[in-house]
């Protein structure tokens, strides 16, 4: 799969981003990995929209695994928060940590990129 790049802003509906990648994934991967990929995309995009009020770019590529990268202009790196029943949010990175093989973030010249890797399993397996 060639890399898919989808810009988004604060008005973007995450469902539109999920639909943009769904068909590209479903023919090549087991349903569970597709679902996990869509979940990670939703969490990362919503984090950008919620915490920056701006937009960014989603990049999805596949080689030995699925690599999801979300670029934005903020230099604030994400971190895991302990679950707190009094807090309505703050669990997105815990979800990403649970479903991905690995995740991280790095600063760029114009902000940051947050990425997650998910294993590739063929639809036949």
UniProtKB/TrEMBL annotation:
Pfam families from the UniProt entry: HATPase_c_2 (PF13581)
Keyword Membrane applies: no
Keyword flag Kinase: yes
Sorted UniProt keywords: Kinase, Serine/threonine-protein kinase, Transferase
Every Histidine kinase/HSP90-like ATPase domain range: 17-117
InterPro entries xref list: Anti-sigma-factor_SerPK (IPR050267), HATPase_C_sf (IPR036890), HATPase_dom (IPR003594)
UniProt-recorded name of the protein: Histidine kinase/HSP90-like ATPase domain-containing protein
The species this protein was found in: Paractinoplanes deccanensis
């Amino acid at each position: 799969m060639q890399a898919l790049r989808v810009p988004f802003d604060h008005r973007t509906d995450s469902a539109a981003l999920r639909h943009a990648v769904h068909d590209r994934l479903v023919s090549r991967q087991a349903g569970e990995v597709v679902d996990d990929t869509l979940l990670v995309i939703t969490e990362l995009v919503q984090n950008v929209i919620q915490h920056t009020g701006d937009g960014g770019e989603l990049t999805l590529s596949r080689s030995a695994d699925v690599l999801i990268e979300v670029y934005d202009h903020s230099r604030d790196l994400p971190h895991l928060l302990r679950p707190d029943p009094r807090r309505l949010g703050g669990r997105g990175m815990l979800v990403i940590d649970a479903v991905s093989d690995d995740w991280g973030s790095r600063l760029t010249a114009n902000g940051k990129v947050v990425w997650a890797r998910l294993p590739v399993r063929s639809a036949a397996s």
